[in-house]
Amino acid sequence: MKWAIIGTWRMCLEGVQKAAALLEKGGKASDAVETAIKEVEDFPFYKSVGYGGLPNEHCEVELDAAFMDGDTFSFGAVAGVRDIKNPISLARRLSRERFNIFLVGQGAEEFAHKNLFQRQNMLTERAKTMWEIRMKKVREGNLSPYDGHDTVGIVALDTLGSMSAGTSTSGLFMKKRGRVGDSPLCGAGLYVDSDVGGAAATGLGEDIMKGCLSYEVVRLMEEGYAPEKAASEALNRFLKKMSDKGRKVGAISLICLDKEGRWGIGTNVEFSFVVADEENGAKVLLARPEKGEVIVKEASEEWLRSYEERLKNPPELNL
């Protein structure tokens, strides 16, 4: 059995590289998922996840995360968590419980404290400055408060055939206090079955959760759809349903991986993602929708350099 891993956005590259090294040595998919996501959570310049994540309307960083084991369907999630380092680890810890597997706000924080999870102020000066700039622009009436909502989602397969998936996000920039999107919701933000495959979503959670899109991708793979077809088919069917109901849909991107290590993408926007397997090191790929299909190409050196430059731009240039 070969190993493989896929993750949303360029921001997961370093995490996928670490996770790939673990899988290469026969490590577990569950550990690989947590390793990859922790790497993103810990890096302050990735502004939509973990430390340095984008604040809510009150300039508070509220974090959501989820973890699922494809062998047992064990699931754990947290939402609206403040000042707890690595919410993905907290979600994974909850997945080992029989009851109370999804905790929010104060309850999740109390559980974290009792179980000795590290506390950390997740609001950085950089994120606070970005919030102040956004507030000024919103008051001037020329900018939406809700731009910026990228989730890191990871799906991994190990050499024993086990699969796991995880997500982590700070949610919509300047969201209402207590708002929760799709990321920590089983079946919406993520879903995995080691007998079939797994999927994760990123984009506008208010729309993704309406289609239970991660579950739908896995369901289609179980019916026999190849991963690349399952992801696009799930998204296109949902987009048509919403259009038939006269509703607009925001940005949505789906990643999936089947039990053979084959991957697929569905997206209605240009989207970057990272893949690695036993034959190929971690690489950044770009996907874009075109006439109901998804065109995928490897990111150029120029694109990667531009990304690095944008990542550490002054806050006023990142809005």
TrEMBL record:
The record marks 150-151 as: Cleavage. InterPro entries: Ntn_hydrolases_N, Peptidase_T2. The keyword Cytoplasm does not apply. The keyword Transport does not apply. One of its GO terms (cellular component) is cytoplasm. The active site is at 151 (nucleophile). Transmembrane segments: none annotated. Keywords: Hydrolase. It comes from the Bacteria. Substrate binds at residues 179-182, 202-205. GO terms for molecular function: hydrolase activity, acting on carbon-nitrogen (but not peptide) bonds, in linear amides. PANTHER family: L-ASPARAGINASE, N(4)-(BETA-N-ACETYLGLUCOSAMINYL)-L-ASPARAGINASE. This is Isoaspartyl peptidase or L-asparaginase, Ntn-hydrolase superfamily. The lineage of its organism: Bacteria, Bacillati, Bacillota, Clostridia, Thermosediminibacterales.
